[in-house]
Amino acid sequence: xxxxxLTTLPPEAAPVKGAQGCPRCKxxxxxxxxxxxxxxxxxxxxxxxxPRCGGVGRVSVQREGALLSGRCxxxxxxxxxxxxxxxxxxARHAEATIAGFVHGALxxxxxxxxALQKGVGPWLDAFDxxxxxxLVLHGPVGRGKTHLLVGITRDLVFKHGAIVRFVEFSRLLxxxxxxxxxxxxxxxxLTELAEVPILAIDELGKGRLTDWxxxxxxxIISRRYNAMRCTLATTNYEPKPATGVRExxxxxxxxSRQTLGDRVGDRVFSRLREMASFVYVGGIDMxxxxxx
Length: 292
Ligand SMILES: [Zn+2]
Ligand SMILES: [Zn+2]
What we know:
Layout: E1 30-34, E2 39-43, E3 58-63, E4 66-71, H1 75-87, H2 98-104, H3 110-125, E5 134-138, H4 145-160, E6 164-168, H5 169-181, H6 188-195, E7 198-202, H7 211-226, E8 230-235, H8 260-264, H9 266-275, E9 276-280
Parallel strand pairs: 5-8, 5-9, 6-7, 7-8
Antiparallel strand pairs: 1-2, 3-4
Helix pairs in contact: 1-4, 2-4, 6-7, 7-9
This protein binds zinc ion (2 copies).
Residues 50, 52-53, 57, 72, 74 line the site of one zinc ion.
């Protein structure tokens, strides 16, 4: 008896989906709703009880005279729902999808369509769960980069079964600082961020960064770089090496003359350059439509 999934079950055991034409889940079988603080995925009511395992999640099959038992493939959707909830996408982005970004981008907004058609689309098509390349979305504030990053996270989880952790950069630093001040030292959180298969960082480089915070970022990115793990990010800063320019108001993002190298250090920047594809997201300010 093994707990491994039975991957070669007959076609009728294909992964569970929702009812075709379901108005709530559009046939995907899951919904993403704004929960308390974070977006929460759940099974849509249209998903029928699995005829193979009766909803128990385990099946047994006779093969070459032996009785094999394992997890039913209907669990795949349940697992992905769990993975999405583990990713911790903020509640305000619960409805963000790539399709929504396309819909929000006006047809004549060529820069946004380019970002999708020449940047994000080819990156997603080439996505290899065994050798995933990173992605950095950069461009001015309000062009929908966060929306796009959430949409990508959703696709990676539900289409590829990827394990992704989504973090807002300034919140992440706050959480780490809290853990350290509780005396947790080299925290479990830091290890989790360094070791999660895919880390999605929203607003990389934002905020007033202390030397301690820069060292933390350096450590996370270095560990991910050395282990060849996939890192995704959005940033409002130009993806260029440090210029040394100082901003009087460090909280200023829009119109800042600082580059990503100035913000996170040249070492982190050059590692990201190696690990990730960079896609410019420009065009019309979408804040009234999408936020972020
Ligand atoms: Zn449904
Ligand atoms: Zn089943």
